């Protein structure tokens, strides 16, 4: 019994460590508020340029031979490609990670099978099924992580976009033109979303294209429909001379309302999930109480 117990305990500890790694605990509310209200620190000096992400990393080097076959299969798909663009991650690195995790999952059941084979006969079906399941999970896990991270970044971008719309509306109310309102408002904010907006507007200025064209391209690249709609509204002001102040204010209000509704829905869902452990504990307690009586009844039959 010692060997199965030790193997079960080790497997449980490994699964717990993997769960903590994949889903780290959320920081305390006070820590988040302190980070959000802290004054910005001075920018550090520019570091030396580093090689591209495709040429660094052990996982990328190990999975590099599998990148071309996976690309031939049409991976990554259009939706996943937009998620990777949001994360700023090269598709080749993502495909290499998928290949390495799939091979690792395929070989992972071999170790416990070899250990159990010393005293037990697990048969051929169990290792094969476990290897296929582990390989499938390893192949899909990078996609799920990338999709979840891209979703979080899009939510943060929409929050920043609502603030940016307010700034543009204020600038337009003060008599600024469309181009100057877009350029001056983006310099106020900081963070990933404002950096992407600032980079898009700088690219439009350097390439002598209209700012709404750059915003539309950015919205299509990041798969954010609100930014594409903003570009369409601003283009009417820039080409047709339409008054867009009221339209921008309405868009900002609608975006904030949608974000509030989503936050309330997530809060209600989290509240519902909190009741599941309590119900599981209650059912376990009932089973613990009822087991002796049920055993006596069955033995009496």
What form results from the Cα inertia axes? extended
Q: How far apart are the first and last residues' alpha carbons, in Å? A: 31 Å
Name the helicity range. Answer: over 70%
- Compressed to H and E, one letter per element, the order equals HHHHHHHHHHHHH
Largest sheet geometry? none
| Mean pLDDT over the residues | 79
Q: From the alpha-carbon coordinates, what is the Rg to the nearest angstrom?
A: 27 Å
| Beta-strand residue percentage | under 5%
Regions with little confidence, pLDDT below 50 for 5+ residues: 43-56
Description:
This protein has 301 residues and is an all-alpha fold. It has a domain at 158-258. The chain contains 13 helices and no strands. It has helices spanning 2-22, 29-37, 58-62, 67-72, 78-87, 91-107, 110-116, 125-173, 178-186, 192-206, 211-222, 225-239, 245-300. The longest helix is centred in the last third of the chain and has 56 residues, at 245-300. The protein is extended. 20% of the residues are buried. Residues 43-56 have low confidence and may be disordered.
Keywords:
301 residues; mainly alpha; 13 helices; extended
In short:
This protein starts with a helix and ends with a helix. With 301 residues, it is an all-alpha fold.
Break the fold down into its secondary structure elements and pairings.
Layout: H1 2-22, H2 29-37, H3 58-62, H4 67-72, H5 78-87, H6 91-107, H7 110-116, H8 125-173, H9 178-186, H10 192-206, H11 211-222, H12 225-239, H13 245-300
């Amino acid at each position: 019994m010692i060997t199965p117990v030790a193997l079960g305990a080790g497997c449980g500890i490994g699964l717990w460590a993997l769960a903590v790694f994949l889903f780290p605990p959320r920081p305390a509310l006070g820590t988040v508020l302190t980070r959000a209200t802290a004054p910005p620190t001075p920018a550090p000096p520019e570091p030396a340029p580093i090689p591209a992400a495709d040429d660094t990393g052990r996982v990328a080097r190990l999975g590099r031979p599998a990148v071309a076959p996976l690309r031939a299969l049409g991976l990554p798909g259009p939706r996943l490609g937009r998620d990777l663009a949001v994360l700023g991650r090269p598709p080749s690195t993502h495909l290499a990670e998928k290949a390495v995790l799939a091979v690792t999952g395929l070989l992972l059941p071999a170790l416990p099978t070899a250990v159990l084979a010393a005293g037990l006969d697990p048969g051929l079906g169990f290792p094969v099924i476990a290897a296929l399941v582990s390989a499938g999970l390893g192949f899909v896990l990078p996609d799920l992580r990338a999709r979840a991270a891209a979703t979080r970044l899009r939510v943060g971008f929409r929050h920043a976009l609502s603030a940016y719309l307010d700034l543009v509306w204020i600038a337009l109310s003060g008599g600024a033109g469309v181009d100057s309102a877009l350029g001056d408002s983006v310099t106020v904010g900081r963070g990933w979303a404002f950096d992407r907006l600032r980079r898009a507007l700088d690219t439009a200025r350097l390439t002598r294209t209209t700012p709404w064209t750059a915003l539309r391209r950015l919205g299509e690249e990041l798969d954010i429909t609100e930014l594409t709609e903003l570009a369409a509204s601003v283009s009417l002001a820039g080409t047709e001379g339409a008054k867009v102040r009221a339209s921008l204010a309405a868009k900002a209000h609608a975006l904030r309302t949608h974000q509030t509704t989503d936050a309330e829905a997530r809060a209600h869902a989290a509240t519902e999930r909190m009741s599941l452990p309590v119900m599981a504990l209650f059912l376990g307690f009932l089973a613990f109480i009822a087991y002796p009586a049920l055993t006596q009844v069955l033995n009496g039959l």
